[in-house]
Amino acid sequence: MDPMLVLQMVLAAVIAATLYTIIGVAPGTDETAVLAPVTLVLVLAGFEPIVILTFFISAIIAKKLTDSIPVAIAGIPGGVMSAPMVEHALVLKKHGMPDLSIRKMASGSVIGTLIGVPVSLLLANALAPLADEIKAFADPIFFIGAIFLALMSKNRWIALVSIIPLALLIQGLRHLYWGVGIVPEDTNVFISFFLGITIGPVILTLFELLNHDKRVSLPRYGKKEIFLKKSAQQKGFPNPFKILTKMEVGISSLTSFVGTITFFLSPVGMTILLGETVSSGVKDPVKRASRAISSMDALTNAAYIGGTLIPLIALGIPLSPTAIGPANALFNAPPVYSLEHNLHHILSTADFVWATLIGAAVALLITYFVTVKYALPICKFVFRKVPHEAMLGLLFALVLMLAYMDAGWLNIGGVLLIGLVAGFLHRLGVHYGVQFMTLYAAPWIVNNLFL
């Protein structure tokens, strides 16, 4: 491999690890919202595919490592995937062990990465011979996937009923664009619709703020006070196999393996299911919480790695919630990538292995060390100096720019419309997985069920 290309990969991994170490600590940052737009920009900017993949792998591992910090210290989830761990982290905090909580979760993430990477690569190569058969049924699989994820969600009936109306809205906008000649009839506006769904809750909230009665009725708060307990600083490079007990290492490895091979299922659902299952029999509250958070964090890391690499290497189409969400730009980012020409078709098996290993190694070396050793000062800095609203505003502006690039001024209105509907559905309990699956299945739904 070209030494300059390797240098670019390492540099991309370092930048990703540094950036998402900070972003991961910011409370409430959704994985899709902070990863998908940045990855898309890198693709559209023309970076080498192997460099983009290295960046993404490093970013996702760093994000999953650091979103445990606000959970442990303040009881605030750093992302959607860390929300199931809040209750157990608060138990450790109540017993005066937030530092232990951070170390357990971060070490679980390391186990998840160490298990998830090789299992993903092996399973991807095992599924590769079946790629043509699977891709032949891709469109109905997306529809079935939307139904399956809807049935798995908490508000299943709302999610199930929403599939057809959302598909009609998406295809209706596409036909409008074709009819007025904004885009050719053989072109599907996709990426801006995807981003509209991604920041739908933000768009809905911003529109609500324009309503005077709604704005006046909102509660007002002063500055939020968060008390951080000073803990002893970790000496040397932390060893996850010493931080976790042998039982926790074994269970975290098991949940990581299961999370990887069930890459096509909802990572949040699997995290809650397996995390609660493996810890339910432990009576001591501290031991139960430690086992739960370490196994949950391991599973989330493994599930994100598997959900990205297995569809990307074996199929070239995004057949997992992670692939459809945060990793979508690796599969479909017109005009650079499409489902017929993306990283699956461009990179060799060796390229995938090197990009994954470099991205994972750099993220673990930088972010794991920083997370365990300097969690408290990082958390202080982010809570004081990095406004959550500023990051959301930047992402919102980026989405509007990409909407204009996709189909002009009219598409900005279209993306706002999709964002309003998606945000409303999200508030009703229709999670991103159902909406993204519907976005992919919309042409098939309309053409096969109504025409």
Automatic annotation (TrEMBL):
<feature type="transmembrane region" description="Helical">
    <location>
        <begin position="352"/>
        <end position="376"/>
    </location>
</feature>
<feature type="domain" description="DUF112">
    <location>
        <begin position="11"/>
        <end position="431"/>
    </location>
</feature>
<protein>
    <submittedName>
        <fullName>Tripartite tricarboxylate transporter TctA family protein</fullName>
    </submittedName>
</protein>
<dbReference type="InterPro" id="IPR002823">
    <property type="entry name" value="DUF112_TM"/>
</dbReference>
<feature type="transmembrane region" description="Helical">
    <location>
        <begin position="158"/>
        <end position="177"/>
    </location>
</feature>
<feature type="transmembrane region" description="Helical">
    <location>
        <begin position="134"/>
        <end position="151"/>
    </location>
</feature>
<keyword id="KW-0472">Membrane</keyword>
<feature type="transmembrane region" description="Helical">
    <location>
        <begin position="68"/>
        <end position="86"/>
    </location>
</feature>
<feature type="transmembrane region" description="Helical">
    <location>
        <begin position="6"/>
        <end position="26"/>
    </location>
</feature>
<keyword id="KW-0812">Transmembrane</keyword>
<feature type="transmembrane region" description="Helical">
    <location>
        <begin position="388"/>
        <end position="405"/>
    </location>
</feature>
<feature type="transmembrane region" description="Helical">
    <location>
        <begin position="106"/>
        <end position="128"/>
    </location>
</feature>
<keyword id="KW-1133">Transmembrane helix</keyword>
<feature type="transmembrane region" description="Helical">
    <location>
        <begin position="298"/>
        <end position="317"/>
    </location>
</feature>
<dbReference type="Pfam" id="PF01970">
    <property type="entry name" value="TctA"/>
</dbReference>
<feature type="transmembrane region" description="Helical">
    <location>
        <begin position="38"/>
        <end position="62"/>
    </location>
</feature>
<feature type="transmembrane region" description="Helical">
    <location>
        <begin position="189"/>
        <end position="210"/>
    </location>
</feature>
